[in-house]
Amino acid sequence: MEISTLPISASQRGKLLSAGYTSLSSLSSLSPSGLAQDLKISETEALEILKVASQRNGLNKFENGSRAIVNGAQTAWDMLHEEESSIRITTSCSDLDEILGGGISPKEVTEIGGVPGIGKTQLAIQLAVNVQIPADYGGLGGKAIYIDTEGSFMVERALQIAEACAQDMLEYNSLLRKNFKPCQGNKEPKEFLDNIFYFRVCTYTEQIAVINYLEKFIFEHKDVKVVIIDSITFHFRQDFEDMALRTRLLGGMALKLMKLAKKFNLAVVLLNQVTTKFMDGSFQLTLALGDSWAHASTNRIILYWNGNERYAYIDKSPSLRSASASYSVTGKGIRNSASNCKRVKLM
Amino acid sequence: MKVEELLLHPLPTQTPKLTLGCPILDHLLRGGVPCNSITEIVAESGTGKTQLSLQLLLAAQLPVSRGGLSAASLYLHSEFPFPIRRLHQLSFFYAPHLPNNPLDRIFIHPLHSADHLLDLLPRLDFIVPQLNIKLIVIDSIAALFRGEFENTPVELKRRSSIFFKISSKLRFHARKFGLAVVLTNQVVDVMDSSDSPRIGNSGFLCSSGRRVCAALGLSWANCVNTRLFMWREEERRGEENGVSENTQTRRFVRVVFAPHLPDCSCEFVITREGIHGVDR
Fold first, then answer.
1. What residue in A sits closest to B170 (Cα-Cα)?
2. pLDDT tens digits for range B156-193
3. Where in the cell is it found (chain A) (predicted)?
């Protein structure tokens, strides 16, 4: 537990822990007043705690005198600094990470779509595991919320991916840190499963209820660093007589999810299905839920088949250039595609 | 109901599975047909969909120690007539492992249309716990939609909204009662490969030497969790001059997509005792 190593008073430490702050990263996105409210302490005391925590993080952002004029507002410089220092969730496929600028970024809503069997759920499970990679290994050391609307989450598969991830961490340890004592935080595969909060929703009302409940839940579990919804679409493709209602409900959900992503500094990953759309005299594949939904997510990634290889394509993103990369689904989870590995070796 | 109740924490370490009644086929599916989700078997007629379904009806009654669910099963059939004599024949091979007559714990109901199925699904809430049903088989889902819908955008939209309704209800019950749900689906021939998107592990599916794909299209493919494809190949044997030539049918099964299975396949045979995988 990182909090227990901070040089603060025992009562402050106790208050932090009982409010659910266990890691430094859970403190990183907080304002002093928010923390003060949360712990029922004075604002100066809260600022003191954040200063200590940020010093530990090496950020020192409170000492620059760049405190916001309006509470909650930030300067562009701060935002840039924060974004550069924020850790992304790796996909375990370096080609995919490269086009994504390092992985799935926190504070943003990322939508991933593709035909059945392309590997949407596989990627989602991989992210739920990878978000837990400890900070010592360059990860976030967070927890995951997995909202399953289709019943495709299989614990066997999650365990398999977790085992491979734990194995990779061990190898990393033995390769790079031969002369040092082994990293703290080696994890058992079973622990990975315990850090996934799994919600199974069977109707669209349940789906909306869970999303409304998330804010309270994450408030109590501040280590949650990714929220995955697999899929956002399924319950909204049954017959909605009133399409305007559907658009409103979806829009409301999107707003709440964006707010969560910003407020708690976490990544939101939405899976979507594809459908055919009649365009220019022929049927073309497009993501489901229509044009207005297309605005809901910050980034859109489309997964597709190219010959016998799986590819991911960045369809929409404010900061990434559109590019595509191949990946493969293996027993260990998402990895680089085999043909690409060969090419790299030759070079 | 409270939102908190939707959270499943900590997660169980395994999904309960229903044996297929054959160790090789069980190995292919890593233990069998998973509960709490929908498994679809796609095949052209005469490949063994119904044979496998019948076998599952009996296997569900086996005790958990033998890979079964020690529960009753419900069979909804839209293809007529129901092969009762074959089921009776198969039941002899299961009777020694079961306390009562296995046929007493198989409930059979005909289906006449998609709307009929939609009317029936809410009643499962009552039937399933009362009869201790743990397996529902629908043979076949495609037959319900053949013919009733025209090939116009409006009709196709209505059809796919019915797909999602059926799937959602089935998934709801599967989750609520821990059911294994198995659906069978037919195939359609592929005329022009360019206009149908690739779904799953294989670029194209072949059966009896023809290119085929699962019936009901892309939107239905979103309605199942696992899709298996069974196909047949005719193989010629005997002299080349065509005098005493006979053909032998070989049958195969492959995982098209599944959240927990890699792309794998195996050969199987249908005998008097049922369906069995062949280890080659």
1. A202
2. 888 889 999 999 999 999 999 999 999 999 998 887 76
3. Nucleus
Q: Is B174 on the interface with A (CB under 8 A)?
A: yes
- Select from A152, A200, A274 the residue whose CB has the most chain B CBs within 10 Å, as the one to mutate to test that interface: A152
The CATH architecture that domain B16-235+244-278 belongs to is 3-Layer(aba) Sandwich (3.40)
Report H helices in A76-154. 76-85, 94-99, 120-130
> From residue B261, how far is each of A32, A218, B26, B32, B41 by CA, in Å?
48, 32, 12, 11, 15
Task: List pLDDT tens digits, range A291-304.
Answer: 888 888 899 999 99
Query: Between A72 and B33, where is the model more confident?
Result: B33
Dist. CA A24–CA A36, nearest whole Å: 16
Domain extents for chain B?
16-235+244-278
3-state secondary structure of B74: strand
Q: How far is A182 from chain B (nearest CA, A)?
A: 28
What stretch of H or E contains A178? none
Contact B61, B70 (CB under 8 A): yes
Question: Closest approach of chain A CAs to the CA of B108, in angstroms?
Answer: 26
* Residue A14 C-alpha from the chain's centroid: 28
Q: How close, in Å, is residue B146 to chain A by CA atoms?
A: 20
Q: Are A27 and A55 in contact (CB under 8 A)?
A: no
Beta bridge partner(s), residue A112: A271, A301
**What domains appear along chain A, each with residue ranges and CATH number?**
3-84 (1.10.150.20), 86-346 (3.40.50.300)
pLDDT at A28: 72
From chain A, pick out residues whose CB is under 8 angstroms from the CB of B11: 155, 158, 193-194, 196, 198
B2 in contact with chain A, both atoms CB, cutoff 8 A: no
In the predicted model, what is the mean pLDDT of chain B? Answer: 89
Tell me the per-residue pLDDT of B258-277, one tens digit each, with 9 for 90 and over: 999 999 999 999 999 999 99
Q: Are B277 and B251 in contact (CB under 8 A)?
A: no
Q: Which residues lie across from B108 on neighbouring strands?
A: B75
Mean pLDDT of B48-66: 94
